[in-house]
């Protein structure tokens, strides 16, 4: 079924196809069709519960940030069977993001290039929808992560305040946080991975956290999402801060600015231009980073993301040292059937 739909969707601009897909998901859920057809479009979801940093996941497969930026499709993604969904990246104030077109497919590489630029409706809009989901689905076991960032117009020396705003407004609603300082699509954002800048962000969040814990009853695990383009020395600096500020762990990795080894014609890649590359070409480096992080720290949690297309890829990420895995490009290329295939392999 998805093969037929994919053939139609891939004739459209990638971002338009995304909006059409999510609209169809929403309508099918509202009419009850999604739940009725789940055995056909997904198949059996193999849930093997796992506890990571105090959170109980129904399975190890999550949907990475970027698909549901505004927390609009939590009901639908829960029905499909994901163990977790990372919403965002959200910013304090809604913003349009970069000019279109800004999302591109590379079918020969099973990859995507995006330069979305943190387009989202703002943290208040996301908070409203998460609260509505929690209220209407109190028994849902879906773990919700909050991926937070800074507005494009915010100078880097004030970025910590943007992260604080999002942190405070989502604290009572999400299950864990991810500090996104590694997207290549917001000017100078990756500079926030530098040790001093990152220390300021972590210190700001830790300083306001005691009042939030008192208000909401328990601490929310805090992760940082890093770039696959970081050197091992840069990763060492980040790890030292993870330990200093007692973060739960690392999401490894974000998209890459590298274009090495692509099968797509170089002329087309050049025509597409700047943006973060995700999908199969990122797999090797992502696995390498996960393995390196695990070799340096056996205690933190690692969420592995990048290049997973099959159950075997997911197992490879787990074997490298990840506790959980996330997909994004795979969902676009393989459709919801991959949820059954990957969870089956992860469940052993």
Class by SSE composition: alpha/beta
Gyration radius, rounded = 19 Å
CATH architectural name: Alpha-Beta Barrel
- Helical content class: 40-55%
CATH topology: TIM Barrel
Short description:
This protein has 13 helices and 13 strands. It has 348 residues and is α/β, with parallel strands linked by helices.
Task: Describe this entry's structure for a reader.
- The longest helix has 22 residues, at 195-216.
- With 348 residues, the chain is of the alpha/beta class.
- The protein has an 8-stranded parallel barrel, surrounded by 5 helices. The chain has a 3-stranded antiparallel β-sheet with strand order 5-6-11, with no helix packed on it. A two-stranded antiparallel ribbon has the order 1-2.
- The chain has 13 helices and 13 strands.
- Helix 4 (74-80) links the parallel strand 3 and strand 4 (84-90).
- The model has no long low-confidence stretch (mean pLDDT 97).
- The two termini are 27 Å apart.
Write the layout of secondary structure elements.
Elements: H1 2-9, H2 14-30, H3 33-41, E1 50-52, E2 55-57, E3 61-63, H4 74-80, E4 84-90, E5 103-106, E6 111-114, H5 123-136, E7 143-148, H6 159-170, E8 176-180, H7 195-216, E9 222-226, H8 232-244, E10 249-252, H9 266-272, E11 276-279, H10 283-296, E12 301-305, H11 311-320, E13 324-327, H12 329-334, H13 337-346
Parallel strand pairs: 3-4, 3-13, 4-7, 7-8, 8-9, 9-10, 10-12, 12-13
Antiparallel strand pairs: 1-2, 5-6, 6-11
Helix pairs in contact: 5-6, 6-7, 7-8, 8-10, 10-11, 11-13
